[in-house]
Amino acid sequence: MKKKSIPSITINRLSIYxxxxxxxxxxxxxxxxxxxxSFEIAEITGVNSAQIRKDLAYxxxxxxxxxxxxxxxxxRELKKILGLDxxxxxxxxxxxxxxxxxxxxxxFQKRGFIIKGIFDNNPSKIGKKIGHIFIHDIKKxxxxxxxxxxxxxxxxxxxxxxxxxxxxxxxxxxxxxxNFAPVHFILPPEIKVHNVDLSIEFEGLTYYLNx
Amino acid sequence: MKKKSIPSITINRLSIYxxxxxxxxxxxxxxxxxxxxSFEIAEITGVNSAQIRKDLAYxxxxxxxxxxxxxxxxxRELKKILGLDxxxxxxxxxxxxxxxxxxxxxxFQKRGFIIKGIFDNNPSKIGKKIGHIFIHDIKKxxxxxxxxxxxxxxxxxxxxxxxxxxxxxxxxxxxxxxNFAPVHFILPPEIKVHNVDLSIEFEGLTYYLNx
Lengths: 211, 211
Description:
Chains A, B: Residues 83-184 form the CoA-binding domain. By secondary structure, chain A is α/β, with parallel strands linked by helices. The first copy, chain A, has helices spanning 8-26, 38-45, 49-57, 71-81, 97-103, 106-110, 141-148, 159-172, 203-209; strands at residues 35-36, 69-70, 88-93, 113-120, 129-130, 133-137, 152-155, 176-179, 192-195.
């Protein structure tokens, strides 16, 4: 399987399909529903069913023509493709309220995102702990990333120091950044950045309030 | 325009198109690009271009056949349809780290989501302020919602009190809840709930780390 040749747009959609299946499994509907068709996934996700079949076909024969996909197997396979079947080592830069909240956020560990350290430049915070995670001096972030083999950096520092901290993460060897700061970074093209905008979470709601 | 007859799946996709246009406008590419075609939106969002044209056609004639949509006008219209062109009054239940972080989150105000109050049951927090927002006794949440005409409640309380607090929000008259607690509520069907899972934000990243 030549994974590199898969268009990024297909990867985005696989993420959408995976979320759709996870939701079905979480609400318990998965127990009755052993097989899911591309039409059912289309109904929930809004992606055209032919597109869904095409996207999944990149990764081999999942389902039976005309029948559908085995729900649990397909979900497991999507997890594997998306790299969600293993543990990833994370650091957080910024020990403010959001940094603290993310350290205590149960969902990360549950999904295999293990926080290894938190970094700040405030001397009154350095050396203390949030939960059982130490706050380190931001100056030591590069060495920590190398020594602990960190995969992903979460950036929750103020906007005016965000680029500088992102540069340090990349210098340490981080390949992917989850950024909560309201800035667009200038970074080498091979570094994957996902900018989080929490106000997006409201979008589905306001349409219905508006009716 | 009979808004109520629009399928919810179309609304979800409008949200996706809106995000796509916002991204283009934010990165400054919108300045050069006056017109965007359904094929270009398809390329970015992963939704089939015929589907995009069909979805947008629900709301009238936006573009010129064979030419595309005027980028800024389409974005303005999507904002309006999605209820994102006006201000919404918000409360936050839970004055923990995440509650504090959300009060200080710049993106909400920027997008018209105005936080009017924060609620907690901890006597040492009640009466204090986060930024310029007062922390009120959770017992007063129903009356506050009614008096201040609150539209949306954000729920960041621990899982074991989440259902109780959601019930209070609904009793006060709230129609939409943004829920960060790891629970699925039992609420009247007319109440719109969006469960936030921050670990989803990692999904686009781990595929590439996995290559």
